[in-house]
């Protein structure tokens, strides 16, 4: 370099944080630096990626601009910190150097991504060593979170550490211009993991290609096979075989909840479902989520009737691993692929647990020997007005990392809700939300909760200064927080009301601290008055909330029993308005089918309050209305009533909509639930309850709720609106509210990045804890 060139040159250190490990960031830096003839180095450390760069000042600025504007496809740059250094005249090349492991870990762990097209092409190339190899991957795709043990993200810190690379894989791994450069899971048939087929008792009977062929043959014969994927096992059967699907339901004791279906490709999916261009983009995105889409009116592939009975939607997804691609390409028919677990428990990640817990459910097991370090279920999403709504945040999207504008004053853990649990961590400028953990009603689920906590504490060497939980004393996360606080007295323990945390979760995603009007509609949650809430309008900020309005409370007759028996919920709402004799005379099929003595006894419980709990839950109101319409008498899975009501309303043609109009009146901060139920009863009484009438009442009911939301929002138009809680997963209700609020020029805070059900609660708790810590 000439003296003049040196005089115009600078040296600088660039620290990049965000999702920058395991995504091909270092080879990306190497390629651009060498193309621009810059000198220096790049390395991974626990803070992210550190680059030392020298060359002409204008060229260095050009490199930094490339870094900001066009990072690698799977990367996300949160911050770039630049420090001037002394020019080094002896540095005449650019190198990638060994990762460092010192310092506080802050790098965001990348989520697992579906197999990229380049790898699929390799798998079809008979001359390529990855031909039909079920574990093909590169820096642009494949496992990340599910195989990582520690940071920084290097092979020795993953479940691939026991697989020594062959010469060919090592060459790719060490070549900065190869797309498999430092792809930590890189392998091939000569050196990597392989599959094996086992009997239900675990006895291995075939391996490699023979194992795949045996799996295919078993599926064609109507067998149920447990197949190990990225983050756990699926229970799989032929989705077109009614006897196979019915047998799966019987063995898994899952009588009604819809089952997810995996299609071989987009062409097959289009024969099963229909949707907007945005929905097809969601389905085929690199995250490959289970996407809820409308069933085809006239499907050209006939699914088994018991896949999703009585529901107008289908949860569908595409192959996301090489193994799935190989199986589905050869099978050429859709498969049911449901999480391998016992009801309400976490997804199973090891063969021994399949044998122990599901040995009587499966006919065989397709296993492999790449260990799953961190279990991760499939994500579930839907489109709401052509925007993503995440219903279960897991594979592909999680862990979620958010970068905050201001550094956090403390290290904080939020332990989430009892159902659909996830946990959240906050420190420095980072917020992390874990993948979906599940419902914490079993020892296995609580063990998974503990394991997920341990994973994040291990990855980030994390000891909290503050713990935040729900207020319900019986929730497992609350009890964990209490126990931790007792053992670590210096750690603060804060508690947040459930529905307020729902609102805070959306505020967190938008980094909002000012007043919002939050509509928090769900099934349950302990209120500050000791009753169960769930139909709330809250004026909220990060310091607290005011309960502006709520549904008129009604009783859960028999307490928790009423949640499984919506007839009790229906009766409770009717007893608020009608006498026992009047209720017995109503032309409502579910009441007419009940013995009069049972109705009378339930009325006694209601009138005395014995064994009853008061609730203002919108979710329970949906249960009552679905029961009144004859759509349900026993709740078989969570959210069933909402699905059935939405499905009924969606059956109406445009000229059949708006045939009925209901009003949800409001007085003294209370929405009149009893008055709404009286209008529904009148509609049932005035005409025969035909399918058309059921559909029209369902339509009018949801529009009425949306009108009440929008009328109240208009009354408080100075505030931005938050729509949150599991009830707003009802696409009909959400889209109706969003469209009407838009027409009223009322701003609704976006909620695309997180679940608005209890899966997002931990992030709301975290947001509360952050802002309490500042005072």
Automatic annotation (TrEMBL):
Provide the catalytic activity annotation: C-terminal L-cysteinyl-[HypE protein] + carbamoyl phosphate + ATP + H2O = C-terminal S-carboxamide-L-cysteinyl-[HypE protein] + AMP + phosphate + diphosphate + H(+); an acyl phosphate + H2O = a carboxylate + phosphate + H(+)
**Swiss-Prot/TrEMBL GO biological process terms:** protein maturation
Q: What class of enzyme is it?
A: ligase
Which superkingdom, per the lineage? Answer: Bacteria
Hydrolase in keyword set: yes
Q: Which UniProt keywords apply?
A: Hydrolase, Ligase, Metal-binding, Zinc, Zinc-finger
What PANTHER family does the record tag this protein with? CARBAMOYLTRANSFERASE, CARBAMOYLTRANSFERASE HYPF
The record's similarity note reads: Belongs to the carbamoyltransferase HypF family.
Protein name in UniProt:
Carbamoyltransferase HypF
Name the species this protein comes from. Answer: Shewanella gelidii
């Amino acid at each position: 370099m000439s003296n003049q060139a040196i005089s115009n040159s600078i040296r600088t250190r660039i620290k990049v944080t965000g999702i920058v490990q395991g995504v091909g960031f270092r080879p990306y830096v190497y390629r651009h630096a060498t193309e621009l003839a810059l000198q220096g180095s790049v390395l991974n450390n626990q803070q992210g990626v550190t680059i030392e760069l020298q060359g002409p000042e204008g060229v260095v600025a050009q490199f930094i601009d490339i870094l900001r504007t066009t990072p690698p496809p799977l990367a996300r740059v949160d911050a770039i910190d630049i420090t001037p250094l002394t020019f080094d005249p002896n540095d005449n090349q650019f190198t990638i150097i060994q990762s460092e492991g010192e310092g506080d870990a802050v790098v965001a762990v990348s989520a697992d991504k579906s197999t990229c097209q380049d790898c699929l092409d390799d798998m079809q190339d008979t001359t390529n060593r990855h031909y039909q190899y079920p574990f093909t991957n590169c820096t642009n795709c494949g496992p990340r979170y599910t195989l990582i043990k520690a940071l920084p993200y290097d092979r020795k810190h993953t479940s691939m550490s026991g697989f020594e690379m062959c010469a060919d894989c090592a060459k790719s791994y060490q070549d900065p211009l190869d797309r498999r450069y430092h792809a930590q899971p890189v392998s091939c048939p000569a050196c990597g993991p392989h599959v094996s087929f086992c009997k239900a008792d675990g006895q291995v009977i075939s391996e490699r290609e023979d194992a795949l062929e045996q799996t295919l043959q078993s599926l064609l014969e109507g067998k149920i096979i447990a197949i190990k994927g990225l983050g756990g096992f699926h229970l799989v059967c032929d989705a077109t075989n009614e006897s196979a699907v019915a047998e799966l339901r019987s063995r898994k004791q899952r009588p009604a909840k819809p089952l997810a279906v995996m299609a071989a490709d987009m062409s097959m999916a289009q024969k099963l479902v229909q949707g907007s261009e945005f929905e097809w983009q969601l389905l085929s995105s690199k995250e490959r989520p289970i996407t809820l889409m409308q069933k085809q009116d006239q499907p050209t592939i006939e699914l088994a009737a018991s896949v999703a009975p009585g529901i107008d939607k289908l949860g569908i997804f595409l192959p996301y691993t090489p193994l799935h691609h190989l199986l589905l390409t050869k099978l050429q028919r859709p498969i049911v692929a449901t999480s391998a677990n016992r009801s309400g428990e976490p997804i199973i990640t090891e063969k021994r647990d399949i044998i122990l817990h599901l040995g009587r459910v499966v006919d065989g097991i397709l296993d492999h020997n790449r260990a799953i370090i961190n279990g991760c279920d499939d994500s579930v999403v839907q489109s709401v007005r052509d925007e993503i709504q995440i219903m279960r945040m897991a594979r592909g999207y999680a862990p979620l990392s958010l970068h905050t504008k201001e550094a956090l004053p403390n290290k904080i853990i939020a332990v989430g809700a009892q159902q659909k649990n996830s946990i959240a961590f906050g420190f420095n400028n980072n917020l992390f939300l874990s993948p979906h953990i599940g419902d914490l009603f079993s020892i296995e689920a609580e063990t998974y909760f503990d394991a997920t906590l341990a994973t994040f504490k291990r990855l980030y060497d994390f000891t909290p200064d503050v713990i935040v939980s729900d207020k319900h004393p019986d929730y497992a996360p609350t009890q964990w927080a209490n126990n931790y606080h007792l053992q670590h007295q210096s750690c603060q323990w804060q508690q947040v009301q459930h529905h307020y945390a729902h609102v805070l979760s959306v505020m967190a995603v938008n980094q909002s601290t000012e007043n919002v009007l939050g509509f928090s509609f769900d099934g349950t949650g302990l209120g500050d008055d000791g009753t169960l809430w769930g139909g709330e309008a809250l004026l909220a900020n990060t310091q607290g909330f005011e309960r502006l309005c709520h549904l008129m409370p009604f009783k859960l007759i028999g307490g928790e029993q009423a949640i499984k028996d919506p007839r009790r919920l229906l009766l409770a709402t009717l007893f608020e308005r009608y006498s026992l004799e009047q209720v017995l005379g109503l032309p409502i099929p579910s009441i007419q089918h009940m013995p009069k003595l049972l109705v009378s006894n339930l009325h006694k419980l209601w009138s005395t309050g014995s064994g009853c709990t008061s609730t203002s839950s919108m979710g329970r109101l949906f249960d009552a209305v679905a029961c009144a319409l004859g759509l349900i008498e026993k709740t078989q899975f969570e959210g069933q009533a909402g699905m059935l009501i939405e499905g009924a309303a969606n059956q109406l043609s445009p000229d059949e909509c708006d045939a009925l109009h209901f009003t949800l009146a409001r007085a003294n901060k209370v929405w009149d639930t009893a008055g709404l139920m009286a209008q529904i009863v009148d509609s049932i009484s005035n005409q025969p309850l035909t399918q058309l009438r059921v559909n029209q009442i369902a339509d009018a009911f949801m529009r009425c709720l949306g009108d009440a939301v929008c009328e109240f929002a208009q009354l408080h138009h100075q505030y931005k609106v938050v729509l949150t809680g599991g009830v707003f997963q009802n696409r009909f209700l959400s889209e109706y509210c969003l469209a009407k609020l838009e027409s009223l020029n009322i701003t609704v805070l976006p909620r695309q990045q997180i679940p608005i059900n209890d899966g997002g609660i931990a992030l709301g708790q975290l947001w509360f804890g952050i802002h309490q810590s500042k005072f």
